[in-house]
Design a protein that fits this description.
- By secondary structure, the protein is an alpha+beta fold.
- Helix 2 crosses helix 3.
- The two termini are about 15 Å apart.
């Protein structure tokens, strides 16, 4: 399992696996439970690089990042 400490968002950690280039078991710790559970379900089994590209730069309330953007950064650090 990969564990990534987030920066500038409500969630404080993202746990996930990358197996054969695919995302699995994405779990956000903290943050908005409904939305973040949905992100985990939507990206399950998807190509990690494609997900990182899709979510990169997503902004939350002018913070310059978001939980989705943080997932993108976490994926790219671990490919």
């Amino acid at each position: 399992m990969i564990s990534y400490t987030t920066h500038g968002v409500c969630s404080h950690r993202i746990n996930f696996d990358i197996v054969d280039g695919k995302l699995h078991n994405v779990q956000f710790i903290g943050g908005c439970p409904g939305n973040l559970l949905a992100i985990g379900k939507l990206v399950e089994g998807k190509d990690a690089k494609e997900v990182a590209t899709l979510l990169a730069g997503n902004d939350c309330h002018g913070r310059g990042t978001s939980c989705a953007d943080q997932l993108s950064k976490a994926i790219l650090e671990n490919l």
